[in-house]
Amino acid sequence: MKRFKRRTPRMNAQHYRVLTRRYFRQVFTCPGTLLPILLQAPVMLVVLLLAADGSAFVNKSLTQANVVLFMLVVMAALSGILNSYREICKEREVLGREVFGGLDTTAYVLSKFTVLAACGAAQSALLFCGSLLLVDFAFPDAAGYFLCPAAMILTNLAMTAIGLFLSALLKKQESAILPVLLLIIMQVVFCDSLIQLDGAAGLIKYVTPAAWGTAVFGAVCGLNEWTPFFSRPLYDLSPLFSLLALAALTALFVLLTAAKLRRTYRRKDQ
To answer: Nearest CA to 152 among 132, 126, 178?
Structure first.
């Protein structure tokens, strides 16, 4: 097989810039891609309006407060996985030709993640800002207005990275339905909000982005202090630690995705 010239950091950076512009252009020029991204947050806000108790944090109603933070964080997580799970497998043929032509797979993954992260961050920020009109979080200080949206954004980014990794593992986007369903169920069951799991099952929450996202909300709002009969270990952690955990999960799966594609197309780099 043809041996290509060694790629330099400058060439890889150029690939990243070109691909990032390409994917941003695709998002804003394709109605089939843009409309779902634009509509997700408003639809989720309607669901929040119908299902959530806006005074739960003021009245210190633990059940209703957990429902609110569960909905916000899991919605952010769902946006991330739904935006990303098809992104690589749907481009298998094109990607193979471009890698054969000298494309750097790491630059490809980073460009995909950058565009999806920008979309996910905008969705999460819109969702949180909209929720302020519906829910009185009664934050004890102004830090809550920064830490909680950061938790939603990083939860979205972590799920985006996981979705990209899943997409890199699959050859056809039709094969992603069952894994995506399992990931969604995992965010719901192991988010450590509505359902408290102990033992081996409880350990899964530590690799569940939604659990770390709800931990930030729980810590900022002080839910463990409302009653002696309620306690979540993650809610006792510093919000900054939970945010770092989400950032670490995001970085891990971005690196795993890049490594998987590099391994898949390693023969084309030789």
So the answer is: 126
- Within 8 A by CB and 6+ apart from 38, the residues are none
Return the closest-CA partner of residue 188 out of 165, 205, 176, 174: 205
In terms of Cα–Cα distance, which of 249, 159, 157 is closest to 207? 249
Query: What gap in Å lies between CA 233 and CA 243, rounded to an integer?
Result: 15
The alpha carbon of residue 59 and the mean position of all alpha carbons in its chain are separated, in whole angstroms, by: 31
Q: How many CA atoms lie within 13 A of 136 on its CB side?
A: 8
Q: Which helix (H) or strand (E) holds 197?
A: none
What is d(CA 36, CA 197) in angstroms, rounded to the nearest whole number? 34
CB-based contacts of 258, cutoff 8 Å, min separation 6: 105, 106, 109, 110
**pTM, two decimal places:** 0.91
- Phi-psi region at 199: left, alpha or beta (left = phi > 0; alpha = psi -120 to 50): left
Provide CB contacts within 8 A for 102, sequence distance 6+. 4, 5, 7
Q: What is the DSSP letter of 85?
A: T
**In the block, residue with structure tokens 């993954």:** 109
H helices, E strands: number in the chain:
11, 0
- Region of 163 please: left (phi>0), alpha (psi -120 to 50) or beta: alpha
- pLDDT tens per residue, range 113-157: 999 999 999 999 999 999 999 999 989 989 999 999 999 999 999
